[in-house]
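Example record

The entry below shows one chain as it appears in the dataset: sequence first, then structure tokens.
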Amino acid sequence: MPTLVVIRGNSGSGKTTTAREVRRRYGRGAALVEQDYLRRVLLREHGSNRHDPVAPAFIDATVRSALGLGYHVVLEGILDSGGHGTVLRRLIADHAGPASVFYFDVSFEETVRRHAGRAEPIPVTADMMRDWYADRDLLSVEGEHVIGESTGFDAAVETILHVSGLAAASALTPCPTRCHRCAEKRRT
């Protein structure tokens, strides 16, 4: 049964970089679903819960599809409880396999500092970030793990891999289980 990992937090908290590294360390067989990519790039939808956005349902369908195809899924984004909480709680409850939720609890000042040092900057100001910032926006689901701002990058990645069980989870998809290219790499 595939593993579902949900990584949430405010803008600039480090969740995207961490989620990408979790997936990189896991390897093939894990899908990375990024809220910003689906909402901002694919749908070109503004981030607001005031206009009945499509993104929450689209994220839900994408994650369910990947899980149904045997992919472990790392879902990351702000995924605020007001706009995504109901969808996320239902997704977690409906998933028959292991599911873990991680929340990056980082102060506003630290999110602004981290945002300024991003490798891939996005055009937002501290004032814009303040409008989005939600203090300790937990989903309140069983086993939700809080990762504090003093947790280092490697420690956060290792925590997510091990607590979720992803570190020990076998790949379930054809690539790498039956893929000839992956088999060749294992032989060399």
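Notes for this example: The first strand starts at residue 4 and ends at 9. The two ends are 29 Å apart (CA to CA).
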